[in-house]
Amino acid sequence: MTQTATYPDLSGASVFITGGGSGIGASLTEGFLRQGARVAFIGRSDASHFVEEMTQTTGNTPLFIQGDITDVHSLRAAMEAAADAHGPITRLVNNAANDKRHATLDVDEAFWDWSVAINLKAYFFACQHAIRGMKSVGYGHIVNFSSISYMMGNAGYAIYTSSNAGITGMTRSLAREFGPDRIRVNALAPGWVLTPKQLELWADPVSLQAHLDRACLKDHLTPADIVNPTLFLSSDASRMMTGQVMAVDGGVVVTG
């Protein structure tokens, strides 16, 4: 990973990342580790090998807590373990999500509940728990991952896009509610990031070209492209930004 900027306030900071052991989340974990942060992350799959790799490549060991973010009790316990190890969480990155494709007319209540639990409910309760600790120390920075998919009105995963829209609404409300406590809450909306999962399941040549045709910048996004914007939103470099949605997509959508 190429590190293009250093944020001194991230050195030693207590960072918690959901889904920090794979895909975009793994790149985020590495990025914060390279800043000298004390990073903890939760994930469902065993990430022991990844932890060893990060220790060797960055000289900084993350704390991996295996758990399911849709289980609010498990999520809170993981965040408490992170705070016990690294001090109160002052940077929360809600990254974990699942964009499983689905046909609207086939959706049943169980699938709705499963998708919302991952893509919106867990975000709210992670924010709620982190904010309590942030209030105790007098500041905090939250980055909630959304997606440009809802801005584009994409079909094929209506619950996922609904959740993304909900994330941006929640972000703005939390920013307003907790700004007086010096807690900043922003959303980051990536474009189509070519993780191994995306390449395996959905990134066929025709779809990739159609997406690139809509972009201003004619390069596909990789997980590394999302790291620096997240570090920026998590650092004092963006100290007067809150309640904002920042698209990082090569210029597919226009915000503002």
From TrEMBL:
It comes from the Bacteria. Residues 13-205 form the Ketoreductase domain. Keywords: Oxidoreductase. InterPro entries: KR_dom, NAD(P)-bd_dom_sf, SDR_fam. Coiled coil: none annotated. Its EC number is 1.1.1.69. Transmembrane segments: none annotated. Pfam families: adh_short_C2. GO terms for molecular function: gluconate 5-dehydrogenase activity. SMART domains: PKS_KR. Belongs to the short-chain dehydrogenases/reductases (SDR) family. This is Gluconate 5-dehydrogenase. It comes from Jannaschia donghaensis. The gene is gno_1.
